[in-house]
């Protein structure tokens, strides 16, 4: 199987990743998509300055993509933390062969997108709603002080 691309050496992807990670950049997300329906080459598709909802609007039902998103998680401004989410998207109409190649290719993407708190693999945009992703991040962080009805 040929490598998905020179993603490991693509300066545009590396720069977008650094921008999402940097507090000095307004960029809060990036999306990598395949160059064509039959290609294994990945390229930077889009970056943005909005939230995860804005990012998920760029994901098509017949597309496979990888995304990286910066999110703020916390109960108040004093406990707010920046966390990163790695998304592996295979839309509900994505071709079977593309889905089959994705596990191998996502390992290569992770050599570039290395630092994240949670990974979300999905074909359902409901899994990418801010509330659902925030819950995953809180679980990954450990303590969740706003649970309802917890008895000790």
Topology:
Blueprint: H1 11-21, E1 29-34, E2 42-48, H2 52-56, E3 64-73, E4 81-90, H3 96-109, E5 118-122, H4 130-141
Parallel strand pairs: 4-5
Antiparallel strand pairs: 1-2, 1-3, 3-4
Quick structural gist:
This protein has 152 residues and is of the alpha+beta class. The chain is 28% helix and 25% strand.
Can you describe this structure?
The protein is an alpha+beta fold. 28% of the residues lie in helices and 25% in strands. It is built from four helices and five strands, in the order H-E-E-H-E-E-H-E-H. It has a five-stranded mixed β-sheet with strand order 2-1-3-4-5, with helices on both faces. Strand 4, helix 3 and strand 5 form a beta-alpha-beta unit. The relative contact order is 0.17. The model is unreliable at 1-5 and 148-152 (pLDDT under 50). This is ADF-H domain-containing protein. Belongs to the actin-binding proteins ADF family. Coactosin subfamily. Residues 5-138 form the ADF-H domain. Its main location: cytoplasm.
């Amino acid at each position: 199987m040929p490598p998905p691309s020179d993603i490991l050496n693509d300066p545009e992807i590396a720069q977008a990743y650094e921008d999402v990670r940097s507090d000095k950049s307004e960029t809060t997300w990036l999306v990598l998509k395949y160059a064509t329906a039959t290609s294994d080459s990945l390229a930077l598709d889009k970056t943005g300055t909005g939230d995860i909802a804005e990012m998920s609007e760029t994901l098509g039902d017949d597309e496979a993509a990888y995304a990286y998103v910066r999110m703020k998680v916390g109960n108040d401004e004093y406990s707010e933390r920046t966390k990163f989410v790695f998304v592996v998207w295979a839309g509900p109409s994505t071709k079977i062969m593309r889905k089959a190649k994705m596990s191998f290719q996502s390992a290569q993407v992770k050599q570039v997108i290395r630092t994240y708190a949670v990974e979300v693999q999905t074909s359902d945009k409901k899994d990418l709603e801010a509330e659902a992703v925030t819950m995953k991040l809180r679980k990954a962080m450990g303590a969740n002080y706003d649970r309802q009805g917890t008895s000790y």
